[in-house]
Design goal:
With 838 residues, this protein is of the alpha+beta class. The protein contains 27 helices and 27 strands. Helix 26 links the parallel strand 26 and strand 27.
Length: 838
């Protein structure tokens, strides 16, 4: 026996033992007349109820069959002309869409088939509802309608046949529900019959009463009730059947209760989880109204939950209708295409700050599978956006000056070149290199140097046109990117303005600093057709400008690349020049202008490259300074010169001294004192025979490191001279602050002596100043007898130059000493000699 509970379609089955059937037969034979009459009456009533059920179901089946057939026949003339119209133009896709629309819209239409005049078939079907009724019940109803067909004829033209198939499954399911309800009622009636019979039975009256009471308690929901299996065999069998059925029903109800409790627990857990999440979460219904939000949403928008529920985005964002419309549009797109979506937005938070957020939304469906709402969350990505901006700034901007860096400049250059190629304009690159900036860094320190660069950047930004770019490439290198250039004269004017802007001093803290700029200029498309070559050519042009003394601008010419290639070759070869023995020292004699004797020598670097030949120090020393290679070269020159001087002293020339040029890098690195001590110790040389030549820029910093180094070296007896005096940051103050023993007159001041009055005046002034400070004077670059006589008359103490000897290798210098070569001097009336301090 099968019992179907409600309309859920779930079934509870119980099998009655064969013994129960036999017990019922014995029970019937043992009944009295009254009981048999009641039983007979009950059977008749049940039979009448069953017959009534059968007739009502059959009547409903017949009516449903007629309705379905009529519906199919009414649909045919509605679709036929529409199909014919589309068939004329061959639009089969539209025909399919029309048929599908009918199938989707009409729940009783199972499928529609159209066969055209060529015999080609087009069928549209859509399974609707699964059959809940068993096959025997469907066969019993026999209400499946036959398909309805109609030929399609329009204007005398045959367009095939249209067939509509309807389904009776929804109606069968409804009748099955009705049948189950009647069956349940009959079952209850049977129970009442049994109860009545039990009441009639005198011998088992108590048991029957218990059965009735238990049945009532069971119907009220007490599924734990059980009937004692006592009394006659027939009653025991009935009690057994009831208990068995009650047990299975109780188990079924219990399982439903457990599932319901689990569902409630899961629902509660989900709700608590949503409330605990730190990101705002919201729910909307199909009309766009908020139906739920969590605490994070309330906190994020500062809107109470009760205020938000039932309202739309237009209500929530009434002060920002533009954003409300934007969000409504996004929601509408999601309704039209269910699924998920994500989009960025900018919101104003409760602290009045703009917040970058991402909305993530997805639709959800009800039990029927229809979209009934959407769930969304809001992720605040403001911090991530700020981090991305910081990273972008680090990648594309110079952290010191906040100017665009090389990478960003190159990107903009490529864009500018593409645009210039389209409109026939030009693009210019002005590559700027500050002259002598390294002396500011080396002497005043990197902190002052950084502040100086910041002020330079501000000064350059004032010159840039709107739409153009000024960038810093690193160190003291800047670049202007000029777009949409019509005439080259515009570039020339800007280059001159850049040079002129450095005519005014730059004040950093208490220092008044000066610099100049060398500028290399390249033009697209004249000098290159890609950004890399254009920038490389600009670099070559700026090197050419620096080679011409700085403070000028040079347009790129193709031969500049030859100079750049040579510079690169020198830089590469220099890294191995020392270890290969290519760098040597030559020595230029220094002559006492009173006695004419050689009293010392200046050690000068020379580089004999096997392929490039003899490379001038003027060419390779600046490169060594920039690359830092001057440090190992300078240390080697110091050791070699000291060792060579000691060799000469051992050969009997004990009064000779040696002069070695120092680099500012050697002074700033902090190891100079150690290097000098080591060189003197290894050579066994007394410090008073060593003279270190410095430039003026190395003294202007007045740093603690410089003072400490000078003090220690002075204690060793080392002498100091200022090289190229008068060409740099000339200041008398450092001659008093530092233990300077001599100044060297630069050769540029002697070229015009004695014919040029200005040169004469400058040279005479330097000599007079040195005499007044009681320090020695060494004249460099003496080449003529007139220059020599001028220096002697003015009181210069020492000379060196081609007039006596060019720089020569150590072997030739040794031979010169052995020969006793000296400068022949004629006596000068009224001239007194000047000696440096001891």
């Amino acid at each position: 026996m099968t019992i179907t509970v409600g309309s859920t379609g779930k079934q509870l089955s119980t099998r009655i033992d064969v013994r129960l059937t036999r017990a019922v037969m014995r029970f019937w034979s043992g009944l009295g007349l009254q009981a048999r009459l009641v039983t007979t009456l009950g059977v008749l009533l049940l039979t009448a109820a069953g017959l009534q059920t059968h007739l009502s179901i059959q009547s409903a089946a017949t009516a449903t069959h007629a309705h379905l057939t009529k519906q199919a026949q009414e649909l045919l003339p509605l679709l036929a002309p529409l199909i014919a119209e589309q068939a004329v133009i061959g639009d089969y896709a539209t025909i399919r869409q029309m048929l599908k629309a009918q199938v989707d819209h009409r729940v009783d239409v199972d499928r529609i088939v159209w066969t055209d005049m060529r015999g080609m078939g087009l069928e549209v079907s859509e399974p609707k509802i699964e059959a809940a009724a068993p096959h025997w019940f469907s066969a019993y109803l026999d209400m499946t309608p036959r398909p309805s067909s109609q030929r399609i004829n329009l204007g005398g033209v045959d367009y095939g046949e249209l067939t509509v198939y309807v389904t009776s499954i929804p109606s069968e399911n409804a009748l099955w529900e009705q049948f189950l309800r009647h069956t349940w009622q009959i079952t209850l009636a049977i129970s009442l019959v049994f109860m009545t019979i039990a009441l009639i039975m005198r011998a088992n009256l108590t048991v029957v009463r218990n059965l009735a009471a238990s049945a009532q308690r069971f119907t009220r929901g007490d599924h734990s009730v059980r009937i004692p299996e006592r009394g006659s065999p027939e009653l025991r069998a009935a009690a057994y059947a009831f208990n068995d059925m009650a047990t299975q029903i109780a188990d079924f109800v219990s399982s439903l209760s457990v599932s319901r409790n689990e569902f409630r627990e899961q629902l509660h857990f989900t709700q608590e989880l949503i409330e605990a999440l730190p990101t705002p979460i919201y729910f909307k219904d199909s009309e766009g109204r908020y139906i739920g939000v969590n605490r994070a949403w309330e906190s994020f928008f500062s809107i109470a939950r009760g205020t938000a529920l039932g309202r739309t985005v237009h209500d929530i964002y009434s002060r920002d209708p533009q954003f409300a419309a934007y969000q409504h549009t996004k929601d509408k797109l999601l309704w039209e295409r269910p699924g998920s979506q994500a989009y960025d937005a900018i919101l104003t938070s409760t602290d009045k700050k703009l917040r970058n957020v991402v909305y993530y939304q997805a639709t959800f469906t009800n039990t029927d599978g229809k979209v009934s709402g959407l769930i969304g969350t809001i992720v605040d990505i403001t911090d991530r956006k700020e981090d991305e901006e910081k990273l972008r700034k680090l990648a594309y901007y110079d952290p010191l000056t906040e100017l665009p860096n090389r990478l960003l400049c190159m990107e903009r250059l490529r864009q500018a070149m593409s645009e210039a190629a389209r409109n026939g304009r030009k693009v210019a690159i002005l590559y700027i290199d500050l002259d002598r900036f390294k002396y500011i860094n080396d002497s005043l320190g990197y902190d002052i140097g950084d502040k100086f660069l910041k002020l330079v950047a501000l000064r350059l930004k004032e010159l840039v046109r709107p739409g153009d770019t000024v960038s810093r490439f690193g160190g003291d290198e800047f670049a202007f990117l000029l777009e949409n250039i019509e005439q080259v004269e515009d570039v020339t004017r800007l280059a001159q303005r850049i040079i002129d802007c450095f005519m005014q001093p730059i004040h950093v803290e208490e220092s008044e600093l000066f610099t100049t700029a060398s500028i290399g200029i390249t033009l697209y498309p004249l000098d290159a057709d890609n950004a890399e070559d254009l920038m490389k050519n600009a670099d070559a042009a700026v090197n050419h400008a620096k080679g011409r003394g700085g403070s000028n601008f040079q347009f790129y010419a193709s031969e500049m690349n030859l100079r750049t290639a040579r510079r690169l070759a020198i830089e590469t070869a220099m890294r191995h020049a020392l270890e290969r023995g290519e760098i040597t020292l030559h020595y230029q004699p220094q002559v006492d202008l009173t006695t004419g004797q050689v009293i010392g020598a200046e050690a000068l670097l020379r580089w004999q490259h096997p392929e490039l030949g003899l490379i001038s120090p003027v060419e390779f020393i600046p490169i060594a300074e920039e690359d830092g290679l001057i440090l190992p070269i300078g240390e080697w020159a110091l050791r070699t010169a000291c060792a060579q001087l000691r060799t000469w002293q051992k050969k009997g020339f004990s009064d000779l001294r040696i002069a070695v040029n120092l680099s500012s890098r050697q002074l700033q690195q902090g190891r100079l004192v150690t290097q000098v001590r080591t060189a003197l110790a290894q050579a066994g040389l007394d410090g008073r025979y060593l003279e270190l030549e410095l430039t003026e820029s190395m003294l202007i910093g007045d740093s603690e490191i410089t003072h400490a180094a000078f003090a220690e070296l002075d204690a060793l007896g080392v002498k100091f001279s200022v090289d190229d005096f008068g060409t740099g940051y000339s200041s008398l103050s450092y001659l008093k602050l530092f233990p300077i023993d001599a100044v060297k007159i630069d050769r540029s001041f002697l070229r015009g002596v004695p014919s040029d009055p200005d040169s004469v005046a400058i040279a005479a002034a330097i000599i007079a100043m040195a005499r007044s400070l009681d320090i020695g004077v060494v004249a460099e670059g003496v080449e003529t007898v007139e220059q020599l006589e001028f220096l002697r008359r003015r009181g210069c103490t020492t000379m060196q130059g081609y007039y006596f000897s060019k720089p020569i290798p150590a072997a030739e210098f040794t031979a010169m000493l052995k020969e006793g070569r000296r400068l022949l001097l004629q006596p000068l009336a009224g001239v007194t000699s000047l000696r440096p301090r001891a």
